[in-house]
TrEMBL record:
Main subcellular location: cytoplasm
NCBIfam families recorded: thrB
Gene name tied to this protein: thrB
Lineage: Bacteria, Bacillati, Bacillota, Bacilli, Lactobacillales
Pathway the protein contributes to: Amino-acid biosynthesis; L-threonine biosynthesis; L-threonine from L-aspartate: step 4/5
Protein name, per record: Homoserine kinase
GO-annotated cellular components: cytoplasm
Residues annotated to bind ATP: P80, L81, A82, R83, G84, L85, G86, S87, S88, S89, S90
Family, similarity comment: Belongs to the GHMP kinase family. Homoserine kinase subfamily.
Length: 292
């Protein structure tokens, strides 16, 4: 049996729109068993999700290796769908990694990242899902440039996952078609300064910049009303560092370990409609293990 494990991810981290992301400790696992006549995908997502060659993971694998022999596979995931935690990126990478392994393609992680980025459109989820930890990345239509993004060790990700789904396509439609030169300079300066602050471990500066996004959060605020609510509650506790995870609707607050419990307790008393989780960085990224 071959087992592929891919972590969840949180993209943007505030102002790093389409470029910053971090892997988190929720996982999709794909177990590959014996060869079969037709693809047989066992999952518990219900009847709407195909269990044959039309399954997204299988289709992604076949896009890379069209002659792949069908197998029986089991997919399990604790990454909620369409919530801004990289569920589709994890499935996409699992499919590519399955094709790479079964098809003996010997593609490097660099090539896998390029393939995944082309399919996803931007690298901010797929890059950290592949490499683990924080990643900064840029795709120019030809090549993916990427570098590790240092995040503080003593940090937790207090994560609120609303009950409702929000498709990335819908959340991207809410984005402005244009930004002025002046606004673009300011928005990218905020993001640059955030990465510099993180690189030297200056979380005091970083956490303020995380809340200064000018690319997407304002435009998406009607789709993710919990952002303002949770940010405000955190501020009352002197905790700064709340942002919209990916395209939303999940909200994440980066919290020093010492402040984590008080934020969790306060938020859980509010009974917001959704799930409150304490997540941590995943530093392994995509893993493949083989058991005979
Ligand atoms: N950077 C992307 C966005 C992440 O915010 O739309 C979602 O895939």
């Amino acid at each position: 049996m071959i087992k592929i494990t891919v972590p969840a991810t949180s993209a943007n981290i505030g102002p790093g729109f389409d470029s910053l992301g971090v892997a988190l400790n929720l996982y999709l696992t794909l177990e590959i068993f014996e060869e079969t006549v037709q693809w047989h995908v066992i999952h518990d997502y219900g009847t709407d999700m195909p269990d044959d060659e039309n399954n997204f993971i299988v289709k992604t694998a076949l896009s890379l290796a069209p002659n792949l022999t069908p197998h029986r596979i089991i997919v399990k995931s604790d990454i909620p769908l369409a919530r801004g935690l990289g569920s589709s990126s994890s499935a996409l990478l699992a499919g590519l990694a399955m094709a790479n392994t079964l098809g003996k393609l010997n593609l490097t992680n660099e090539r896998l990242l390029e393939k995944a980025t082309v399919l996803e459109g931007h690298p901010d989820n797929v890059a950290p899902a592949l490499f683990g930890g924080g990643v900064a990345a840029f795709y120019n239509g030809i090549q993916v440039f990427h570098a590790p993004l240092k995040l503080p060790q003593d940090i937790n990700f207090v994560t609120f996952i609303p009950k409702y789904e929000l498709l990335t396509a819908e959340a991207r439609q809410a984005l402005p078609a244009h930004m002025s030169f002046k606004d673009s300079v300011a928005a990218s300066a905020i993001s640059n300064t955030l990465t510099a602050a993180l690189s030297v471990g200056d979380f005091n500066t970083a956490r303020k910049l995380i809340e200064m996004d000018q690319f997407h959060e304002q435009a998406r605020s009607h789709l993710a009303p919990h952002l303002e609510i949770i940010r405000e509650v955190a501020h009352q506790l002197q905790i700064i560092g709340t942002y919209l995870s990916g395209a939303g609707p999940t909200i994440i607050t980066l919290v020093p370990k010492k402040d984590t419990q008080k934020l969790l307790e306060t938020l859980s008393k509010m009974n917001l409609p959704g799930k409150l989780l304490l997540l941590k960085s995943d530093f392994n990224g995509l893993q493949i293990t083989k058991n005979d």
